[in-house]
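Worked Example 4.2. Consider the chain below.
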Amino acid sequence: AKNSGPMVAISSPRLLAASLLLLLAHAVASSATGGAFGGAHAPSGLQLRGNVAPHGPLRLRGGGIPFLSNIFGGPKAPGPRIIIAGAPASGKGTQCEFLVKTFGVVHISTGDALREQVQAGTELGKMAKDFMDKGALVPDDVIIGIVKARLAEKDCLEKGWLLDGFPRTGVQADAMAKAGIVADKFILLNVPDDVLIERCVGRRSDPVTGKIYHITFNPPPADADVQARLVHRSDDTEEAMVKRLQQFQKNVDAIKGYYKDITMEFDGVGDKMKLAAGIHEFISK
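Applying the procedure from the previous section yields the following structure tokens:
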């Protein structure tokens, strides 16, 4: 067709469709970036999970049409954020292994995180070490700072995390909430006291491998060297367990209120694989 003026006629249906798509993309980008032509101000109140800043507009090859990667195929969402709680000898360690294997989350115990900070010589680690050297308990605010720092690391942001037995008290749960540490799921393992006492009294740990055995339910290998180095903790006695269980119950009652909307309680007695399957279904919802 002959051009008779400044307007150009689009005779090809395919070209017309492409032009409309480009105009639509431009309109979406302009709206998301704050102006008709891609203004500098993003909408207020926008915050992605993990405190990741929204992506700026990218540009398609050979053109000037902005393309927002956070709308079209943005970064992969992080994995689940899980807290697991249970009394001593309730089976948390076994279920943590299953969760790490099936969901790929980062397993975090406060003891490990604390030691890492101390060994790295961070400010939080130095503060914690001062208390530890004096034989005093590390204050909750320092522990919360250490946990928050660990959860902000790249592996936790990308894979999700599993907090093992933390928070332990209502004060810690409240401090976590104020620090912005939010979980997706809270797992509570329930086991009768008499079963816990039996499990605990028969427990033996290998200081070399870190494995925990039970002289009846999960006996150590028939290796003289392994059996010779097994340790029976001084607080793994019936008397000590009764006191620990009383304290645990008091603490967990205070914690429950903070996670009531994301909590599932499980019977920790019975087949560990069936328990793992139930937990897996809960996390996958």
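The beta strands are 57-59, 66-68, 81-86, 106-108, 161-164, 185-190, 203-205, 212-214, 263-267. The first strand starts at residue 57 and ends at 59. Compare this with Example 4.1 before moving on.
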